[in-house]
Amino acid sequence: MTARLLRTTLALLFLGLLGVLEATTISCRNEEGEAVDWFVFYKLPKRQDKENGETGLEYLYLDSTTRSWRRSKQLINTTKSILGRTLQQLYEAYASKNNNTAYLIYNDGVPTSVDYSRKFGHTKVPEEGYDYPPTGRRNGQNGICITFKFNQYKAIDSQLLIYNPNIYSCSIPATFHQELIHMHQLCSRSSSSEIPGRHLAMFQSAQGQNFLHFAKSDSFLEDIFAAWMAQRLKTHLLTETWQRRRQELSSNCSLPYHVYNIKAIKISGKSYFSSYQDHAKWCISLKGAKNHWTCIGDLNRSPYQAFRSGGFICSQNWHIYQAFQRLVLYYENCS
Fold first, then answer.
1. What pLDDT does residue 147 have?
2. pTM higher than 0.85 for the full model?
3. Which InterPro entries match (predicted)?
Protein backbone atom coordinates (compact mmCIF):
# COMPACT_ATOMS: atom_id res chain seq x y z
CA MET A 1 0.00 0.00 0.00
CA THR A 2 1.43 3.36 -0.95
CA ALA A 3 1.93 6.29 1.38
CA ARG A 4 -0.68 8.21 -0.60
CA LEU A 5 -3.37 5.64 0.25
CA LEU A 6 -2.47 5.97 3.91
CA ARG A 7 -3.00 9.72 3.95
CA THR A 8 -6.02 10.96 5.80
CA THR A 9 -7.47 14.38 6.31
CA LEU A 10 -9.88 16.12 8.59
CA ALA A 11 -12.44 18.70 7.59
CA LEU A 12 -13.62 21.07 10.26
CA LEU A 13 -16.78 23.11 10.05
CA PHE A 14 -16.82 25.61 12.87
CA LEU A 15 -18.37 28.41 10.89
CA GLY A 16 -16.75 27.14 7.74
CA LEU A 17 -14.07 24.67 6.75
CA LEU A 18 -10.43 24.01 7.62
CA GLY A 19 -8.52 21.36 5.71
CA VAL A 20 -5.45 19.44 6.89
CA LEU A 21 -3.53 16.73 5.09
CA GLU A 22 -0.64 14.60 6.29
CA ALA A 23 1.09 11.34 5.35
CA THR A 24 0.52 10.03 8.87
CA THR A 25 -2.90 9.76 10.46
CA ILE A 26 -4.63 12.99 11.39
CA SER A 27 -8.10 12.55 12.81
CA CYS A 28 -10.88 14.21 14.73
CA ARG A 29 -10.23 13.64 18.45
CA ASN A 30 -12.52 13.32 21.46
CA GLU A 31 -11.85 14.80 24.91
CA GLU A 32 -9.72 11.77 25.82
CA GLY A 33 -7.54 12.41 22.76
CA GLU A 34 -8.82 9.28 20.98
CA ALA A 35 -9.36 9.26 17.22
CA VAL A 36 -13.01 9.37 16.13
CA ASP A 37 -14.61 9.31 12.68
CA TRP A 38 -16.55 12.53 13.38
CA PHE A 39 -17.86 14.73 16.13
CA VAL A 40 -20.37 17.56 16.45
CA PHE A 41 -20.37 20.17 19.22
CA TYR A 42 -22.68 22.88 20.50
CA LYS A 43 -21.10 25.63 22.58
CA LEU A 44 -23.67 27.08 24.94
CA PRO A 45 -24.19 30.84 25.28
CA LYS A 46 -23.13 32.76 28.35
CA ARG A 47 -26.04 32.95 30.77
CA GLN A 48 -26.79 36.03 32.83
CA ASP A 49 -28.83 34.29 35.55
CA LYS A 50 -26.85 33.14 38.58
CA GLU A 51 -28.78 29.87 38.82
CA ASN A 52 -27.29 28.48 35.62
CA GLY A 53 -23.93 30.20 35.87
CA GLU A 54 -22.72 29.20 32.41
CA THR A 55 -19.53 31.03 31.43
CA GLY A 56 -20.04 30.76 27.68
CA LEU A 57 -17.31 28.12 27.47
CA GLU A 58 -19.34 24.97 28.20
CA TYR A 59 -20.40 22.76 25.32
CA LEU A 60 -22.34 19.65 24.38
CA TYR A 61 -20.77 17.11 22.06
CA LEU A 62 -21.58 13.90 20.23
CA ASP A 63 -19.18 11.68 18.30
CA SER A 64 -19.16 8.52 16.21
CA THR A 65 -18.79 6.33 19.32
CA THR A 66 -21.73 7.79 21.28
CA ARG A 67 -25.51 8.02 20.82
CA SER A 68 -26.54 11.33 22.38
CA TRP A 69 -25.24 14.69 23.61
CA ARG A 70 -22.70 14.67 26.42
CA ARG A 71 -21.83 17.59 28.63
CA SER A 72 -18.20 18.54 28.18
CA LYS A 73 -15.77 17.82 30.99
CA GLN A 74 -13.51 20.55 29.63
CA LEU A 75 -14.14 24.17 28.70
CA ILE A 76 -13.92 24.94 25.00
CA ASN A 77 -10.99 27.34 25.45
CA THR A 78 -8.71 24.62 26.87
CA THR A 79 -6.29 22.44 24.91
CA LYS A 80 -8.04 19.35 26.34
CA SER A 81 -11.36 20.23 24.68
CA ILE A 82 -12.34 18.39 21.51
CA LEU A 83 -11.27 21.40 19.44
CA GLY A 84 -8.01 21.80 21.33
CA ARG A 85 -7.17 18.09 21.04
CA THR A 86 -7.99 17.99 17.33
CA LEU A 87 -6.24 21.19 16.29
CA GLN A 88 -3.14 20.31 18.32
CA GLN A 89 -2.21 17.92 15.50
CA LEU A 90 -1.96 20.86 13.11
CA TYR A 91 0.07 22.99 15.50
CA GLU A 92 2.50 20.12 16.20
CA ALA A 93 2.99 19.52 12.47
CA TYR A 94 3.51 23.26 11.93
CA ALA A 95 6.06 23.48 14.76
CA SER A 96 8.01 20.51 13.41
CA LYS A 97 8.17 22.11 9.93
CA ASN A 98 6.79 18.83 8.54
CA ASN A 99 6.69 19.20 4.76
CA ASN A 100 4.21 16.32 4.45
CA THR A 101 1.43 18.42 5.96
CA ALA A 102 -0.88 20.68 3.99
CA TYR A 103 -3.30 23.10 5.59
CA LEU A 104 -5.52 26.11 4.88
CA ILE A 105 -6.91 28.45 7.53
CA TYR A 106 -9.31 31.17 6.50
CA ASN A 107 -11.51 33.78 8.11
CA ASP A 108 -13.73 36.64 6.97
CA GLY A 109 -12.19 38.70 9.77
CA VAL A 110 -8.56 37.72 10.33
CA PRO A 111 -7.70 37.28 14.05
CA THR A 112 -6.25 40.43 15.69
CA SER A 113 -7.43 42.46 12.68
CA VAL A 114 -10.21 45.04 12.70
CA ASP A 115 -10.92 44.41 9.03
CA TYR A 116 -14.08 42.50 8.18
CA SER A 117 -15.65 41.54 4.88
CA ARG A 118 -19.06 40.03 4.10
CA LYS A 119 -17.60 38.76 0.83
CA PHE A 120 -15.58 35.87 2.22
CA GLY A 121 -16.51 32.58 3.88
CA HIS A 122 -17.39 33.07 7.55
CA THR A 123 -14.86 30.95 9.48
CA LYS A 124 -13.17 31.29 12.86
CA VAL A 125 -9.86 29.53 13.58
CA PRO A 126 -6.94 31.10 15.48
CA GLU A 127 -3.64 31.09 13.63
CA GLU A 128 -1.02 30.70 16.38
CA GLY A 129 -1.75 27.77 18.67
CA TYR A 130 -5.16 26.95 20.11
CA ASP A 131 -7.26 29.67 21.66
CA TYR A 132 -10.91 30.57 21.89
CA PRO A 133 -11.71 34.29 21.56
CA PRO A 134 -13.50 36.11 24.40
CA THR A 135 -15.93 37.47 21.80
CA GLY A 136 -17.11 33.90 21.23
CA ARG A 137 -18.45 33.45 24.75
CA ARG A 138 -21.64 35.47 24.58
CA ASN A 139 -23.56 33.51 21.96
CA GLY A 140 -24.05 29.86 21.10
CA GLN A 141 -21.81 28.29 18.43
CA ASN A 142 -21.70 24.89 16.81
CA GLY A 143 -19.56 22.87 14.44
CA ILE A 144 -18.58 19.53 13.03
CA CYS A 145 -15.33 17.65 12.47
CA ILE A 146 -15.12 14.78 9.97
CA THR A 147 -12.16 12.50 9.29
CA PHE A 148 -11.69 11.85 5.56
CA LYS A 149 -9.32 9.68 3.57
CA PHE A 150 -7.17 11.43 1.01
CA ASN A 151 -9.26 10.15 -1.90
CA GLN A 152 -12.05 12.54 -0.85
CA TYR A 153 -9.97 15.65 -1.17
CA LYS A 154 -10.34 16.29 -4.88
CA ALA A 155 -14.04 16.89 -4.24
CA ILE A 156 -13.27 19.02 -1.17
CA ASP A 157 -10.75 20.97 -3.26
CA SER A 158 -13.48 21.91 -5.77
CA GLN A 159 -15.99 22.83 -3.07
CA LEU A 160 -13.47 25.08 -1.36
CA LEU A 161 -13.06 27.14 -4.53
CA ILE A 162 -16.76 28.08 -4.40
CA TYR A 163 -16.33 29.42 -0.85
CA ASN A 164 -13.88 32.10 -2.02
CA PRO A 165 -12.03 31.82 1.31
CA ASN A 166 -10.06 34.71 2.79
CA ILE A 167 -6.99 32.59 3.58
CA TYR A 168 -4.60 34.07 6.12
CA SER A 169 -2.38 31.05 6.81
CA CYS A 170 -1.67 28.06 4.57
CA SER A 171 0.88 25.59 3.31
CA ILE A 172 0.33 23.27 0.34
CA PRO A 173 3.58 21.33 -0.32
CA ALA A 174 4.47 20.49 -3.93
CA THR A 175 3.47 16.83 -3.50
CA PHE A 176 -0.18 17.94 -3.40
CA HIS A 177 -0.16 20.52 -6.21
CA GLN A 178 -1.18 18.22 -9.06
CA GLU A 179 -4.28 16.82 -7.32
CA LEU A 180 -5.32 19.76 -5.14
CA ILE A 181 -5.20 22.41 -7.82
CA HIS A 182 -7.56 24.94 -6.26
CA MET A 183 -6.07 24.70 -2.75
CA HIS A 184 -2.62 25.37 -4.16
CA GLN A 185 -3.88 28.33 -6.20
CA LEU A 186 -5.93 29.76 -3.34
CA CYS A 187 -2.96 29.46 -1.01
CA SER A 188 -0.71 31.32 -3.46
CA ARG A 189 -3.55 33.75 -4.33
CA SER A 190 -3.09 32.92 -8.01
CA SER A 191 -6.46 31.33 -8.75
CA SER A 192 -8.08 32.37 -12.02
CA SER A 193 -10.65 29.57 -12.10
CA GLU A 194 -14.25 30.47 -12.82
CA ILE A 195 -16.30 30.09 -9.64
CA PRO A 196 -19.66 28.29 -10.04
CA GLY A 197 -22.70 29.82 -8.36
CA ARG A 198 -23.28 26.64 -6.38
CA HIS A 199 -22.36 22.96 -6.30
CA LEU A 200 -23.45 19.87 -4.42
CA ALA A 201 -20.91 17.16 -3.56
CA MET A 202 -21.01 13.86 -1.73
CA PHE A 203 -18.26 12.93 0.71
CA GLN A 204 -17.61 9.74 2.66
CA SER A 205 -15.85 9.73 6.00
CA ALA A 206 -12.93 7.41 6.74
CA GLN A 207 -15.33 4.90 8.32
CA GLY A 208 -17.95 5.10 5.58
CA GLN A 209 -20.45 7.72 6.82
CA ASN A 210 -21.97 9.60 3.86
CA PHE A 211 -22.30 13.40 3.81
CA LEU A 212 -23.78 15.87 1.32
CA HIS A 213 -22.09 19.25 1.02
CA PHE A 214 -23.91 22.32 -0.30
CA ALA A 215 -21.51 25.11 -1.34
CA LYS A 216 -22.60 28.50 -2.70
CA SER A 217 -20.62 31.46 -3.98
CA ASP A 218 -21.56 35.10 -3.49
CA SER A 219 -23.21 35.04 -6.94
CA PHE A 220 -26.00 32.71 -5.78
CA LEU A 221 -28.34 35.36 -4.40
CA GLU A 222 -31.05 33.17 -2.87
CA ASP A 223 -31.83 31.88 0.60
CA ILE A 224 -29.80 28.66 0.57
CA PHE A 225 -32.30 26.88 2.86
CA ALA A 226 -35.55 27.60 1.00
CA ALA A 227 -34.36 27.91 -2.59
CA TRP A 228 -31.94 24.98 -2.62
CA MET A 229 -31.43 22.76 0.43
CA ALA A 230 -35.05 21.98 1.37
CA GLN A 231 -36.02 21.36 -2.27
CA ARG A 232 -32.97 19.18 -2.97
CA LEU A 233 -33.30 17.16 0.26
CA LYS A 234 -37.07 16.90 -0.32
CA THR A 235 -37.96 17.70 3.26
CA HIS A 236 -39.41 20.55 5.30
CA LEU A 237 -36.60 22.08 7.36
CA LEU A 238 -36.38 23.57 10.84
CA THR A 239 -33.54 26.10 10.76
CA GLU A 240 -31.55 27.52 13.64
CA THR A 241 -29.48 30.57 12.71
CA TRP A 242 -28.73 33.88 14.36
CA GLN A 243 -32.03 35.75 14.49
CA ARG A 244 -30.54 39.22 14.58
CA ARG A 245 -33.38 41.67 15.10
CA ARG A 246 -34.77 43.23 11.91
CA GLN A 247 -32.30 41.21 9.81
CA GLU A 248 -33.99 37.80 9.78
CA LEU A 249 -36.05 36.13 7.06
CA SER A 250 -39.51 34.87 8.02
CA SER A 251 -40.42 31.21 7.78
CA ASN A 252 -41.08 30.31 4.13
CA CYS A 253 -43.97 28.11 2.92
CA SER A 254 -44.09 29.38 -0.68
CA LEU A 255 -42.25 26.40 -2.19
CA PRO A 256 -43.09 22.67 -2.10
CA TYR A 257 -40.79 22.08 0.87
CA HIS A 258 -41.05 24.64 3.67
CA VAL A 259 -38.47 26.30 5.91
CA TYR A 260 -39.34 27.22 9.50
CA ASN A 261 -37.28 29.35 11.88
CA ILE A 262 -36.49 27.81 15.26
CA LYS A 263 -37.05 30.46 17.93
CA ALA A 264 -35.75 28.81 21.11
CA ILE A 265 -33.31 26.03 22.03
CA LYS A 266 -33.95 23.68 24.95
CA ILE A 267 -30.84 22.50 26.80
CA SER A 268 -32.47 20.39 29.52
CA GLY A 269 -35.49 20.64 31.80
CA LYS A 270 -36.52 24.31 32.01
CA SER A 271 -33.16 25.56 30.72
CA TYR A 272 -33.37 27.17 27.27
CA PHE A 273 -32.09 30.12 25.24
CA SER A 274 -33.39 32.24 22.38
CA SER A 275 -32.16 32.27 18.79
CA TYR A 276 -31.15 35.89 19.44
CA GLN A 277 -28.43 34.43 21.72
CA ASP A 278 -27.30 31.85 19.19
CA HIS A 279 -24.70 32.17 16.42
CA ALA A 280 -25.04 28.45 15.65
CA LYS A 281 -26.10 27.60 12.11
CA TRP A 282 -27.87 24.29 11.53
CA CYS A 283 -31.09 22.74 10.31
CA ILE A 284 -32.95 19.44 10.58
CA SER A 285 -35.85 17.75 8.83
CA LEU A 286 -39.22 18.50 10.37
CA LYS A 287 -40.21 15.82 12.87
CA GLY A 288 -42.16 13.05 11.15
CA ALA A 289 -40.44 13.46 7.78
CA LYS A 290 -39.27 10.35 5.93
CA ASN A 291 -35.77 11.78 5.51
CA HIS A 292 -33.91 12.55 8.73
CA TRP A 293 -31.39 15.18 7.65
CA THR A 294 -29.14 17.28 9.86
CA CYS A 295 -27.05 20.04 8.26
CA ILE A 296 -24.36 22.18 9.89
CA GLY A 297 -22.77 25.18 8.24
CA ASP A 298 -21.98 28.87 8.21
CA LEU A 299 -24.87 30.95 6.82
CA ASN A 300 -27.77 32.71 8.57
CA ARG A 301 -31.29 33.14 7.24
CA SER A 302 -30.93 36.84 6.53
CA PRO A 303 -31.32 38.99 3.39
CA TYR A 304 -27.69 40.04 3.80
CA GLN A 305 -26.39 36.45 3.82
CA ALA A 306 -27.39 35.99 0.17
CA PHE A 307 -24.27 38.00 -0.69
CA ARG A 308 -22.01 35.70 1.35
CA SER A 309 -20.32 32.52 0.17
CA GLY A 310 -20.57 29.45 2.37
CA GLY A 311 -22.44 26.24 2.77
CA PHE A 312 -23.69 23.29 4.82
CA ILE A 313 -22.64 19.69 5.28
CA CYS A 314 -25.53 17.27 5.80
CA SER A 315 -25.92 13.80 7.24
CA GLN A 316 -28.72 11.27 7.67
CA ASN A 317 -27.09 9.82 10.77
CA TRP A 318 -29.96 9.01 13.14
CA HIS A 319 -28.07 9.83 16.35
CA ILE A 320 -27.04 13.28 15.07
CA TYR A 321 -30.62 13.94 13.99
CA GLN A 322 -32.10 12.88 17.33
CA ALA A 323 -29.59 14.97 19.28
CA PHE A 324 -30.49 18.15 17.39
CA GLN A 325 -34.22 17.39 17.24
CA ARG A 326 -34.37 17.24 21.03
CA LEU A 327 -32.94 20.77 21.22
CA VAL A 328 -35.93 22.35 19.46
CA LEU A 329 -38.22 24.09 21.97
CA TYR A 330 -40.48 25.84 19.50
CA TYR A 331 -40.40 27.28 15.99
CA GLU A 332 -42.15 29.96 13.92
CA ASN A 333 -44.91 28.83 11.57
CA CYS A 334 -45.65 30.59 8.32
CA SER A 335 -47.90 33.63 8.59
1. 93
2. yes
3. DNase_II
